[in-house]
Amino acid sequence: MTEEWKEKIIKEKLGGKRDWSEEERAALARSLDEELEKRLQGSGGGDGRPKDAWTEDNWKEQMAEHPLFAPYLQEEGAVEGEAPINPLSEGLAQLKFDPDHSSPQEVAQNYKDEGNLQFKYKKYRLAVANFSEGLKQQCPDKELNAQLYNNRAAAQCHLGNYRSTIKDCEKALELNPDYMKVITRAVDAAAKLKSWDEVFAWCDRGLQLDPAHTKLKASRLKAVKEKKIIQRDNRRKSQEILKKKNEEQSVVNVIKNRGIKLGTSHLKGSSSITLEDLETHHPAAHGSRVHLSSCAELVWPVMLLYPEYQESDFIQEFTESDYFSDHLEVIFGEGVPPAPWDTEQKYQYQNLKIFFEDKEKEKLCSVDPSWTLSQALSDPRYCVMGGTPSFIIVVNGSKFMKEFLSKYK
Amino acid sequence: MSVSNDTLNSLVKFLSSEARSDVKSLACNSVAQLTGSPEGLQLLSSRPDVLKAVIQLVHDPDTSTILNAMKILVNLSAEEAGAKALLALTEPHVVDEMIKCIKNKDYPHADLACGVLANLSKPRALCQKVLHQMNLGGNRLEELTQIFCQMDYNRKGANLHLLASMITNISQLEKGRKLIMDKNGFVLNRLLPFVTCEESRDRRYGAVATLHNCCFDKASHEWLLGEEVEVAGRLLLPLAGPDTFTLEENDKLPLDLQYLPNDKTRESEPVIRQLLLEALMQLCVTRHGRESLRDQNAYLVLREHHKWETDCHCQMLNEDVVNLLIRTEDEIGADDLSSVEVPDDLAKKFTAQDEQYLAGGST
């Protein structure tokens, strides 16, 4: 190198002249010195020092950025890629990860080490990325690849990506069929997914390697039990659904047997009635529906309408054998405080008149208070609309009643 | 057809693996025909050289030769003398060769190989030999059980159902039961689901019969009744029909028996129901067994089963179990019922009563 350089200088500066005088030599030395000085000044900040040299003012920052001294990892929460990449770090990274500088095996190993470090610092996403890069090298070392898969599975597990965990475990086990750690990891991941059949299968694979493995035996037992519970719950659920369906059917049958006519606001020709059609649409009655009591009697939700005041009452459970008078007495009986809208206190139990509407003929039909609900409902003129029988109540003999009745004639 | 020793002498040459395949096939066919008669079987049993050649032929490339060789082995092993003669050979050993065939996923007649093993293990004395040979190659019972559990293991359509019979035969032996109930082996655990296997009567019978035999091991009752096996639920499930219980009753039953669907059917074979009830009876021999069955409300299931049962023998067994379950331990007065000495005259009386019951009279 020095010889070459000497030759070059001789050629450039002296035109190839070899035998020199003292003066010539001194002059050359001087010119070289000057040249060097000039070069230093041109590149430096003027004080002859390189531009990126550390100064007393900036050494702390410089040191923090230098890959040798930098705190290896960013603070928790720092956004990756935000900090400018130090050229020295980049260089080091190139040495470590550049396939031109290292064999695939070395690069894969380096990625594995890097990933493990990230894992240690709970940077699972970065760890996954590093292990993936390691695998991309497709290095011929099966054991190393198995480890990379296993480690990536572990990082994925921490991220909650259990399906990916299991996939990586499968691959690791393909490369190394005796890898017990991988099996227990897959068991854990499958248990997190509550995929008990998988837990079961993985336990069996592990127990083939080590029949006395206590953890796997316990997991297997748990999987069997969990599966039984799920099956039991499913059986119970379908039984409940069936029971409900049967109950509903029997309600519909009883209604039919009683000869009660049902109408819905959206009559669909002759299609059979389901209980859904009987769900009341009244906001106050939400959720209540005709049902059978323990003595096989129909219990209806019933609306009482007071057209005079455009008010209404809702009776949640009006058993078919109940008398109208019973319910009216509860609402308008003696000693019962009058409804807030009944400012004149006219609505007294004894002087009320009950009607229902014959929808077909658009007529009012009178109901005697001594009737049971069932008597009213089985009247051929009665039709239960929207699953909720409704009755009109007015004060007997009042001016309003006359007006009201006249509308129907 | 009568064949002399001389004919066999000439046939054996053609049975060797070096023989021309068409000749070999014909020779094998002739030997197979011999196994159709008792004399033929007897003659073959006395010819280890022929048997040896036949065993080797189960790995022949020609499937028709394999089929004939396997048929010979099945027929021979069905008779105790033939089975004995086969097991007397060591090189090659018939058990080893059969296991090889069963393990081979592409073996065309693996079901016949299972049949040979089932036949060989039937007589108690020979079963010991089979088990011994199996153990020489590691815990191969466990390996075979695993294969048995994979329903589509054989790719040539063999179903391997008969392995269940072999396992049942092995469960006759104390040593066999030890292997089957080995806590690190999962042989029994793997068999449990087959107790309700609808696809195969052989599998169902085999699983139930093995469980039945294991229940005779009083020392294992605690393990059997524990959460690892949950034998009570397993034995009761085939006896349980559609759910008729209240919510509270359901919650006290073993998990598998809770909220059974309306289309749940009971075990259709009286023979298998008998085994199930006998197994429950065996569990009732120990106090722990009785208490565990009471805790799991076995009585409820048996009560419903009794209403449904039409087979006399099963009804009687059911009543025997229920009789023990509805009594208190004070009334029973002995922890281990097998230790109770029954005087001869009473024993005779009981047997007579049972017979009368079975004949349709009342007890």
Short description:
Chain B: Residues 279-332 form the Protein HGH1 C-terminal domain. Chain A is an alpha/beta fold and 409 residues long. Chain A has helices spanning 2-14, 22-43, 59-65, 87-97, 104-120, 124-136, 142-159, 162-175, 180-192, 196-209, 214-257, 324-332, 373-377, 399-406; strands spanning 261-263, 291-292, 298-306, 311-319, 352-358, 363-367, 383-385, 390-395.
Q: Topology, pairings included?
A:
The complex is a heterodimer of chains A (409) and B (363).
Chain A lengths: L1 H13 L7 H22 L15 H7 L21 H11 L6 H17 L3 H13 L5 H18 L2 H14 L4 H13 L3 H14 L4 H44 L3 E3 L27 E2 L5 E9 L4 E9 L4 H9 L19 E7 L4 E5 L5 H5 L5 E3 L4 E6 L3 H8 L3
Parallel strand pairs in A: 1-7, 3-8
Antiparallel strand pairs in A: 2-3, 3-4, 5-6, 5-8
Helix pairs in contact in A: 5-6, 5-7, 6-7, 7-8, 7-9, 8-9, 9-10, 10-11
Chain B lengths: L4 H11 L5 H14 L3 H8 L2 H10 L5 H16 L1 H9 L5 H10 L6 H11 L3 H13 L3 H10 L13 H8 L3 H7 L6 H5 L9 H14 L6 H5 L5 H6 L10 H6 L17 H14 L3 H9 L2 H11 L3 H14 L3 H4 L11 H15 L5
Helix pairs in contact in B: 1-2, 1-4, 2-5, 3-6, 4-5, 5-6, 5-8, 7-8, 8-11, 11-14, 14-18, 18-21, 20-21
Please work out how many helical segments of chain A DSSP would assign.
14
Number of helices of chain B: 23
- Report the C-alpha radius of gyration of chain B, rounded: 24 Å
- Gross geometry of chain A: elongated
Main pleated sheet of chain B: none
Instruction: Specify the helix fraction band of chain A.
Output: 40-55%
Q: What is the succession of H and E elements of chain A?
A: HHHHHHHHHHHEEEEHEEHEEH
Q: Supply the number of structural domains of chain B.
A: 3
CATH superfamily annotation of one domain in chain A: Phosphatidylinositol 3-kinase Catalytic Subunit, Chain A, domain 1
Looking at the overall shape, the CATH architecture of one domain in chain A is Roll
Total strand count of chain B, please?
Answer: 0
Kindly name the structural category of chain A: alpha/beta
Task: Give the uncertain stretches of chain A in residue-range form.
Answer: 73-82, 267-271
Shape of chain B: elongated
Radius of gyration of chain A: 46 Å
Mean pLDDT of chain A, rounded to whole units? 83
Mean pLDDT of chain B: 89
Distance between the termini of chain B: 56 Å
Q: Most extensive interface: pair and counts? A: A-B, 17 and 15 residues
Organism (chain B): Scylla paramamosain
Protein name (chain B): Protein HGH1 homolog
Family (chain B): Belongs to the HGH1 family.
Keywords (chain A): Repeat, TPR repeat
